[in-house]
Amino acid sequence: MIVYLGARDAERGRAAARDLNARAGADVRFVRLDVTEEAQIAAAVRRVDEECGRLDVLVNNAGVVVEWGVPVQEVTTEQLRRVFDVNVFGAAAMTRACVPLLRRSTAGQVVNLSSPLGSLSLLSDPDDPVSTRGLLAYSSSKAALNAITVLYANALRDDSICVNAANPGLVATDLNAPSQFGRGVRTAEQGAEVPVALALMGADGPTGAFCGDNDSSVDATVPW
Ligand SMILES: NC(=O)c1ccc[n+]([C@@H]2O[C@H](COP(=O)([O-])OP(=O)(O)OC[C@H]3O[C@@H](n4cnc5c(N)ncnc54)[C@H](OP(=O)(O)O)[C@@H]3O)[C@@H](O)[C@H]2O)c1
């Protein structure tokens, strides 16, 4: 596959693409992309259209947490907006912009990076550690992303485009470096296994599902 690697910072994005291209057979192309900027989304989609004429897979990976250590009742509207801007509006804007190109694929796939922290079932289960995390903006943004996943899955089923949410497991990344609950234990490579498995599914793969667990099993599902 030709992979377009979206990043806000051109220097870091180019360096990441260079590292990946050092692997045999890789064709990774950096594209400047802030998912909160409609003009950058449009430019990225135009470039994929011009160079490839279609898109087989969209991975909505961009995500932020801004409220580590902030009690639920103290999270501000501004913090909610910052998180929803990226985690919800960014993913929806990217999907909307990419649908015309995904329709030209024989088996289009949209993979939304979600989290058990967005599961209403787990948040409302007092025996599950998820219910104690209290990340108001992040959890509610991932719950909204889950709803968006199911709505797009329903809307695009007849176009043979599958839309799924992926749980990468607890991965040690920049995202949870400031976490008071401890960092993830998985590597980025392990965290990528479920999203990549979904990305490579054919048209007969799942749609409207929330897949993945800490063993990288794409067959395991997270309750909504
Ligand atoms: N780590 C976990 O345990 C875990 C668990 C469940 C789900 N997830 C989800 O997995 C996804 C990846 O997270 P991660 O753990 O790899 O965190 P990360 O290392 O912080 O990566 C998040 C990425 O999102 C990018 N980003 C933030 N705002 C953006 C914007 N406006 N436009 C474009 N890109 C933007 C960041 O770019 P910059 O480098 O420019 O900031 C960063 O590369 C997220 O959606 C996260 O919610 C992670």
Question: What is the fold's blueprint, element by element?
Answer:
Elements lengths: L1 E6 L2 H12 L5 E6 L5 H15 L4 E4 L16 H26 L5 E6 L6 H4 L12 H21 L4 E6 L21 H12 L10 E2 L13
Parallel strand pairs: 1-2, 3-4, 4-5, 5-6
Helix pairs in contact: 2-3, 3-5
Give structural notes.
The strands form 2 sheets. A 4-stranded parallel β-sheet has the order 3-4-5-6, sandwiched between helices. The chain has a domain at 58-211: 3-Layer(aba) Sandwich (Rossmann fold). It has 224 residues and is an alpha/beta fold. The longest helix is centred in the middle third of the chain and has 26 residues, at 77-102. It contains 6 helices and 6 strands. The mean pLDDT is 96. Bound molecules: NADP nicotinamide-adenine-dinucleotide phosphate (NAP). Residues 8-9, 33-36, 61-64, 86, 90, 113, 115, 168, 170-171, 173-176, 184 line the site of NADP nicotinamide-adenine-dinucleotide phosphate.
H-E string: EHEHEHEHHEHE
User: What's the overall average pLDDT, rounded?
Assistant: 96
Looking across the biggest beta sheet, what order are the strands in? 3-4-5-6
Proportion of residues in extended strands: 5-15%
Give the helix proportion (percent range). 40-55%
Under CATH, the homologous superfamily of the domain at 58-211 reads NAD(P)-binding Rossmann-like Domain
